Amino acid sequence: MRKPKCYVLFSGGLDSRLALQLLKEQSQEKKFDVIAITFLLPFATPCKANSFFDFCRSKHVKQKIIDCTKGEFFKQYIKLVARPKFGYGAGMNPCIDCKIFMLKKVKKFLKDGDFVATGEVLGQRPMSQHYKALMVIEREAGLEKKVLRPLSAKLLRKTIPEEEGLVDREKLLDIQGRSRKKQIMLAKKYNINFPSPAGGCLLCEKIFAEKLKDLLKRKKPDEIMPRDIMLLRIGRHFFFEHFKIIVGRNHQENEILKILKNKDEKIFELKSKPGPSVLLQGEIREESIKKAKELVLQYSKHEDEVVEK
Ligand code: SF4
After folding, report:
1. Partner of 54 at 20 to 30 A CA spacing, among 10, 13, 120, 220?
2. Nearest to 193 by CA among 48, 38, 2
3. Is 201 in the pocket of ligand 1 (CB under 6 A)?
């Protein structure tokens, strides 16, 4: 007989590691399989790919990767970020819509008796982890009572796998709030290493949000390419009405700007001395070229002629 499957949304952060640990512990006795689902999202900060692969391997858990950094999923995700049904958090982070998006993708794998789990903690994040938001997320994803949050399960309504005895509710937890103390104690108990909570999602950062807002003013969501998002991640950005300039902050960024340059854009640099590469996008005319050249000099340590490269 087919064993039911539990799909754990696994970002690699501490909470999702603990959720996976708790369910893996129950899975042998309760006879279900645990599968980790990791989403690669366009605005995630560089992931600790090896560390999350290693963790799943060490727990003998299969891991599926869903790549939303390109192709159709990228387009869908950008549309969602541009016009979220449930609005933004402090930055341009549409957390409720983002979670619904991920759950809807996972729902496609579900067969009879399967369920989903996440590392969400009640009250940990103001926008998407209060009780009502958690319920909205599972309802909108078409997964009512099929999303188990093992870290806070005892504070939430019973899910179907708990009702049916597939998961033992008594062995789940009742963590709530923003403090990470309990999770850190559990990490010690289970000997779980975890990445620092810094980083995460660029959409939550105010400066990044400004850059993204500007991009959405210049392009329709369906015109935005992965390259545009890569450019938002690097350099100093200067916005003008009909053009935009990006100044590389170091050698690596200068090289990336040159690689990502489109045919209708221009790169300016010092003629023979080291300095920043500057990418000019939008209208190429006297005024924009003058500004780009000024910025090359402004961020250079040397005096030299500025040339187009
Ligand atoms: S922080 Fe970013 S990745 Fe996480 S739910 Fe919100 S929008 Fe999605």
Report:
1. 120
2. 48
3. yes
20 and 72 housed in the same domain = yes
User: The tokens of 138 are what?
Assistant: 């599972």
For ligand 1, the distance from its centroid to the CA atom of residue 252, given in whole angstroms, is 27
132 & 277 share domain: no
Decide: 5 and 114 in contact? Cβ < 8 Å: yes
| Residue ranges with strand state E in the chain | 5-9, 33-40, 62-67, 115-117, 147-148, 236-239, 243-247, 266-270, 278-282, 306-308
Per-run averaged pLDDT (10 residues), the chain, 309 residues: 95 95 92 96 74 89 97 98 97 97 98 97 93 98 98 98 96 97 97 78 94 96 97 97 97 98 97 97 97 98 95
Asked whether residue 249 is domain-assigned, the answer is yes
CA-nearest residue, atom 3 of ligand 1: 201
Q: What CATH number does the domain containing 139 carry?
A: 3.40.50.620
> Residue 215 falls within a domain, yes or no?
no
Q: What is the total count of domains within the chain? A: 2
Structural domain of residue 115, as residue ranges?
Answer: 5-190
In a domain, 226, yes or no: no
Write down the pTM of the prediction: 0.94
Q: Tell me if 52 sits within 8 A of 10, measured CB to CB.
A: yes
Query: From the CB of 93, is ligand 1 less than 6 Å away?
Result: yes
CA 74 centroid distance within chain:
12
In a domain, 224, yes or no: no
Q: What is the DSSP letter of 197?
A: S
